[in-house]
Design a protein that fits this description.
single chain, mainly alpha, rod-shaped, signal
């Protein structure tokens, strides 16, 4: 009788340890997934910053190119003779 009780207690302890172990493994797996997602998001953010900076530079170049005549406009009105 005592042996049966000891066996049941042992099985209950093993079941509890198995549940704890599987919870730890699951948590570790989820942490790795979260770290991978965070790393991907940071990489995407860096790429987006690079694209934004390139776009800003292109806009500034376009502004300079299109406004070059406007920059010389003051000179033409100073020397204008009707």
């Amino acid at each position: 009788m005592l042996k049966a009780i000891n066996t049941k207690i042992l099985l209950a302890i093993l079941a509890a340890l198995t549940a704890i172990g599987s919870a730890v493994i699951y948590q570790s797996h989820e942490a790795h997934k979260a770290a991978a997602i965070l790393q991907q998001q940071q990489h995407d953010a860096e790429e987006q910053r690079g694209r934004d900076e390139a776009f800003r530079k292109q806009v500034e170049q376009d502004k300079k190119r299109r406004n070059s005549a406007a920059g010389n406009e003051g000179k033409t009105w100073k020397s204008y003779i009707p």
